[in-house]
Amino acid sequence: MVIVDGHNLTFADDRAADLLEAGDPERSRNRVLEIVTRYAVSTGQRAHVVFDGTGGAYIPQAPRERVRFTFAGEYRTADQAIVRMVRDTTGRRDLTVVSNDRELRADAKRMGANTLRVDELLEHVARVRQAERERDNAPEPRAKKTGAAGAEVEYWLSEFPEETVEQIEKEIDAENDKRKK
Question: pTM for this one?
């Protein structure tokens, strides 16, 4: 589980900070949740973002995959809420607190949690985005257009009983006939 200081992430991400400064806290918080969601999905973890304040009328959109969020409330800070969350958790070695606040990270470490600076989370997300762009722009394999090499075909034919191959060929022919119509 990753616990993220939403305020720190807001001001570390230029777009989230710009949206907040432009008077659009809802879109700013949604931007933060998008970043944390990408991080959580890419690392296979669950995440909880803690924002300062009560949220007012600007509550982020519906829940996201692997990510929850809360507001610290009127009378405590997100840092205080995060310390309490860590203290109330029994599996602290499985927790990672993401914040730029040195004192919060030190408290989390003293309680047995791992820590990560916000810029480290953002760097991870940037690498994930870059890998996605490269994958999306990768050329199609030549074999996809020309078909598998003869040796590869022979190998797979030897792996399947002849009846299975005949059934597959019939299904492919039937599918091709459907497409032609």
Answer: 0.72
